[in-house]
Automatic annotation (TrEMBL):
Protein name stated in the entry: Uncharacterized protein
Length: 239
């Protein structure tokens, strides 16, 4: 995938046409992935760059507060220096503002396209608990299947909670366990029984099926959206 550096708009010669072509080449490739219903990591990358530009436009301090994990101290210092140069140089400020405004509009359009695909996939997913759900649903199994074949993919999941800027978020970590052929012998309940028998560290796990009749790219779309939907489902439907 063609990539933009984290501080692409601030690097090298600050020229609207130069940055415009770099952006359009990047977005053209992102849209090529979207046309194949492949969302990740492309959608997250565009959102990052969009927020990064918005942050720089609104307040240089916002960068340091909101993007500490991806932007390095060197990049933050570079952006802060550029921000100061903008204030002191009317011509540079105008050129950067044109670059940022144009880029925000183009990225926003691409993000909307990706979001529409995400929402469509989300609407096609059906989540169902398998058997009785224990009180502790922080760890368990997700049984994932779509319309491409007769396989059920089993992932062990573990919910996590992390804090960021005075807010608490729920995340999820998954690990692929095995694949079962879907047939009368391998129902959701039978897979759950087999998992309990062979993986005794979880004697009473929460198990959920996540299914769709349609076909989506597994790594780039189906799995990441299924994980997010499962987090949402567990949050709304606690044991």
């Amino acid at each position: 995938m063609k990539a933009l550096s984290d501080t692409w708009f601030a690097e090298g010669y600050i020229d609207f046409e130069l940055k415009k072509y770099a952006l359009l080449a990047y977005l053209q490739e992102i849209n090529r992935y979207f046309n194949e219903n492949k969302l990740y990591p492309q959608l997250g990358d565009v959102v990052f760059h969009y927020n990064n530009l918005l942050a720089f436009k609104e307040n240089k301090q916002f960068l340091q507060q909101h993007f500490p994990k991806r932007l390095t101290a060197v990049n933050i210092e570079k952006l802060q220096l550029l921000y100061e140069q903008m204030i002191a140089d009317d011509e540079l400020m105008e050129e950067l503002e044109n670059i940022i405004q144009y880029s925000l509009q183009k990225m926003n359009s691409t993000i909307r396209e990706g979001t529409e695909i995400y929402e469509f996939v989300e609407e096609q997913l059906n989540i169902t608990p398998v058997g009785l759900i224990p009180l502790d649903v922080q760890e368990g199994y997700m049984l994932l299947s779509d319309g491409r074949a007769s396989d059920t993919l089993v992932y062990q999941y573990r919910l996590t909670i992390f804090e960021r800027h005075d807010e608490r978020y729920r995340g999820i970590h998954t690990e692929y366990i095995s694949t079962y052929t879907r047939n009368l012998a391998h129902t959701g309940n039978s897979i759950k029984t087999d998992l309990i028998r062979h993986r005794r560290h979880l004697p009473n796990p929460a198990v959920y099926t996540v299914e769709t009749d349609l076909v989506f790219p597994l790594t780039e779309t189906l799995l990441p959206i299924a994980k997010r939907c499962l987090v949402k489902y567990i949050t709304v439907n606690p044991a």
